[in-house]
Specification:
388 residues, alpha/beta, Rossmann fold, Trna Endonuclease, Chain: A, domain 1, 2 domains, 17% strand
């Protein structure tokens, strides 16, 4: 059992809220973490993919009323959206009898329906947490380079060899396209969505150009945007927003888009091992997005991520916005001797960030300039975690 960074925060959320939604893509480890949290308190587990458990909830109010004094873990909760109004009533009823926190732990694959339903009916009664694939802070002995190649999904990361890892990720993608995604919306052509997903991998970390995707796929721009919205809602793709500020410069306004798990990127592009990856044109962008995703995961939803780019060439790969409005500027280099371009310095003049870092694949921490440090990914992720 590899300890998850989110575990203490999940325990804290259950100690302060009657319901907690733990969201994340399939196979990311939500159920395993829920069992770890629920075992000491003898939690009741209900899996809505099980016909037997679904039958128990034929009369959900009656069944759940019999377990008011236990933490109830409900897996795949998006399969029964009508459950949310009932949970609201049970939570309010429990509050009147002194049962105020730690009632329900809801696990879901981050469908739009789940967020909409729970937002409408459980407002003020639910906390949201996101479980990402494994990060450099969690994998310990596994090097960041290996994690980058195979990605952070547990089955892929712990596979016995690269070929088995790649096969698992390809099966994961196929299962999503053929079985899971159709549950979350109107009928979508699996092959067209697969081609779109592959195009996103080729364009990893690039600016969103929906018109270009539309021409390449032979579908309209509205459909492209709906596909992208779906993959973002399922936490498989991230839209990294541009930084907007009134600084008198012409700013890029399109978001960057990328497949969040680097292992899925490599599976979509049929890249099996590190040697193949290093020879592929996507290598630089894959590394950059891997670093961004790990740093945002270290911030556990409390640190927001942006990028900065102006028409004049000023650019920062990642801006971290802290709750107190402090900015950290992070440049990402796939080089053991990183050198900064003039665009980074120009951007720092525009933005005046409190801290400036360069993440590179080496092991030492050193100063490039009096106010700029170069350091490995794991060290900066740990620094973000400690600063929360």
């Amino acid at each position: 059992m590899i300890p998850r960074q989110l575990s203490p925060k999940l325990s804290e959320a259950l100690a302060n809220s009657p319901a907690v939604a733990l969201l994340g893509p399939r196979q990311v480890g939500k159920t395993t973490l829920a069992f770890e949290i629920g075992q000491p308190v003898d939690a009741l587990y209900i899996d809505l993919e099980s016909e037997q458990d679904l039958a128990k909830l034929a009369q959900p109010e009656l069944y759940l009323s019999d377990h008011q004094d236990r933490l109830v873990i409900i897996d795949e909760v998006h399969r029964l959206p009508g459950l949310f109004p009932i949970l609201r009533g049970l939570i309010d009823q429990g509050r009147r009898s002194g049962l105020r926190v730690g009632r329900y732990l809801l696990l879901g694959s981050a469908s739009l329906d789940l967020l909409k339903q729970s937002g409408e009916t459980l407002a003020g009664r639910i906390a949201y947490l996101e479980l990402s694939p494994f990060t450099v802070l969690e994998t310990g002995e596994l090097s960041s380079e290996n994690l980058w190649v195979v990605g952070g999904f547990p089955e892929s990361m712990l596979a016995s060899d690269p070929r088995q890892s790649l096969r698992w990720r390809q099966d994961f993608i196929r299962t999503y396209l053929e079985r899971d995604i159709p549950q979350f919306g109107p009928r979508i052509a699996a092959e067209t969505l697969r081609r779109f997903w592959v195009m996103l991998a080729h364009n990893q970390g690039g600016l969103l150009n929906a018109a270009q995707f539309s021409r390449n796929l032979g579908i309209d721009v509205k459909t492209v945007n709906s596909y992208l919205d779906l993959l973002v809602d399922l936490m498989l793709v991230r839209r990294l927003p541009p930084w907007h500020a009134n600084i008198g410069k012409r700013l890029v306004k399109s978001p960057k888009v990328y497949v969040r798990d680097s292992g899925l990127v490599h599976a979509l592009l049929a890249i099996q091992d590190k040697e193949s990856l290093l020879a592929h044109p996507v290598v630089g962008q894959s590394w950059e997005c891997f670093v961004i995703e790990n740093l945002l995961a270290a911030g556990m939803g409390e640190v927001q991520g942006f990028f900065y780019r102006t028409g004049g060439g000023a650019e920062v790969d990642l801006l971290l916005l802290w709750p107190d409005s402090t900015l950290w500027a992070v440049e990402i280099k796939r080089s053991l001797s990183p050198k900064l371009e003039r665009g980074f310095y120009s951007a720092c003049v525009d933005l005046a960030p409190a801290k400036k870092y360069v993440v590179y694949p080496g092991v030492e921490r050193y100063r490039i300039a009096p106010d700029i440090e170069a350091l490995p990914l794991a060290l900066l992720a740990e620094q973000i975690k400690q600063a929360l």
